[in-house]
Specification:
Pfam families: CTP_transf_like, GFO_IDH_MocA. It comes from Sporofaciens musculi. This is Adenylyltransferase/cytidyltransferase family protein. GO terms for molecular function: nucleotide binding; nucleotidyltransferase activity; oxidoreductase activity. This protein is of the alpha/beta class. It has three domains: 3-118, 3-Layer(aba) Sandwich (Rossmann fold); 128-244, NAD(P)-binding Rossmann-like Domain (Rossmann fold), CATH 3.40.50; 248-446, Dihydrodipicolinate Reductase, domain 2, CATH 3.30.360. It is 33% helix and 26% strand. Helix 13 (295-311) crosses helix 15. The radius of gyration is 25 Å and the shape is globular.
Length: 447
């Protein structure tokens, strides 16, 4: 019996897939089809799958062509599978010619001609035709724009900016370059807002009333009542309103939260989060400084994210210490915040012009989780115990700092008309409440 094996994602199974499977089956007597797992696809940069692993497996089985279906979960598995299943022929499409020649050491490698004119990427592209507008002046938009290119079917068509000096040539070359927000809204399906936080409320409200979907860099607003108003307004107009904090969409960070829920370190009694960056002293007061966010807005939502997602937002009290960068006390450069819960404590330390170790430490009754700097770009963490032999290390590949996964979640929410929230409403609102306290200088001491 000649055993043949082939692999693929098989997302949105189409005629091209079926023809390739039929050709593979003709090479032998028994066909094994490997379907890539969701996590493995992420490590390969495939983040746009329309269907879950189980849906893709079911689609392959439904063709009746495969004699056996397995799951491909990691790089290097092909060699192990060839040995395990006694494979005689490995085959893939001709677009991979030469890439898998190393497998000739273990079996015969055959490259099959692909069916021209059809691909899953093109099908996904045709299904997703969301035009996106950018809002703001921050240089962060340059990074965000590059990540948009990775996501199929998302078409950035323009930007609304009051100052374009810190934007890339690619962004300045978009079809729409305007300082009139209403003109941008006329031409897009959705907006990504990275303007100054004190403008978020007005811009989000205007977008909702225009029937546009919104991805807004946290904080969504600086006043709790405005947050409530925007949430109700978005529901009434049936648009997606989603907070953007890229860390929330990192695979490693999501796995960390799941392990905590499973009680891996017992009851959590403390969360300590640090986020800092340095800026040169001569930039304070410059035009570039005016286009950047204050420290509390730049780092506050990120540092508060694990605190609120792990301990919740029902703290008993909060104490804030702040050092300002200017005599008028308009721009903070360092903030230390302590939160007291009924059975736990938390602290965040954030700085823009002050440097510290950017780590995240979660202390529990059985052990603790350590995420090294820069923890907000989470791709690795450790669970540590008193008995070091029990320590565990976890690594998950992070591409695009989580921005591309954030975009995929946003698109999925729009398509399915349902929020796929990695940041809950409670957490989003909790961040706004802290921002309001800071602006009003409640529970705040100046150092």
């Amino acid at each position: 019996m000649v055993r043949v094996i082939t692999y693929g994602t098989y997302d949105v199974l189409h005629y091209g897939h079926i023809k390739l499977l039929e050709r593979a089956k003709e090479l032998g007597d028994y066909l094994i089809v490997g379907v890539t797992s969701d996590d493995y696809d992420k490590t390969r940069g495939k983040i746009n799958n329309q269907q879950s692993l189980m849906e893709r497996i079911a689609a392959v089985k439904a063709t009746g062509i495969a004699d056996e279906v397995i799951v491909e979960e990691y790089e290097g598995q092909k060699i192990e599978d060839i040995r395990k299943y006694g494979v005689d022929i490995f085959t893939v499409g001709s677009d991979w010619i030469g890439y898998f020649d190393y497998l000739n050491e273990f079996c015969n490698v055959v490259y099959l001609p692909r069916t021209l004119g059809v691909s899953s990427s093109e099908i996904r592209e045709s299904r997703r035709s969301i035009s996106l507008g950018l809002v703001g002046e921050s240089s962060f938009l340059n990074k965000f724009y590059k990540e948009c290119d990775v996501v199929n079917g998302l078409n950035v068509v323009g930007i609304c900016a009051q100052d374009e000096r810190y934007l890339s040539e690619e962004i300045r070359g978009l079809p729409i370059l305007t300082d009139d927000y209403s003109k941008l809204l006329e031409k897009v399906d959705a907006v990504y807002i990275r303007s100054q936080p004190n403008q978020h409320y007005r811009q989000i409200k205007e977008a909702i009333l225009a029937g546009k979907h919104i991805l807004c860099e946290a904080p969504r607003s600086l006043i709790e009542k405005q947050w409530d108003e925007l949430s109700l307004l978005a529901q009434a107009h049936e648009v997606i309103l989603m907070d953007a904090v890229k860390t929330a969409y990192a695979t490693a960070y999501a796995r960390l939260l799941l392990l905590l829920k499973c009680g891996k370190i017992g009851e959590v009694v403390s969360v300590d989060s640090t986020c800092t960056s340095l800026i040169s002293e001569d930039i304070v007061g410059s035009d570039a400084f005016k286009c950047s966010w204050d420290n509390i807005y730049e780092w506050g939502p990120t540092a508060l994210l694990p605190v609120f997602q792990i301990l919740g937002t029902e703290y008993k009290e909060v104490k804030i210490a702040v050092r300002y960068a200017d005599k008028k006390q308009k721009h903070d450069m360092f903030v230390k915040m302590n939160l007291l819960y009924p059975s736990a404590v938390a602290s965040i330390k954030i700085g823009n012009g002050v440097k510290s170790e950017g780590e995240l430490i979660i202390s529990g009754t059985k052990g603790y989780i350590y995420v090294p700097a820069p923890w907000w770009k989470t791709d690795y963490f450790e669970i540590r115990y008193e008995d070091q032999a029990l320590n565990r290390r976890y690594f998950y590949q992070l591409d695009g700092e989580g921005i591309r996964y954030e975009l995929v979640s946003f698109i999925k929410s729009i398509e399915e008309k349902k929020n796929h929230l990695e940041i809950s409403s409670k957490v989003s609102k909790g961040i706004t409440k802290i921002m309001e306290k800071f602006v009003n200088k409640e529970d705040l001491s100046i150092i």
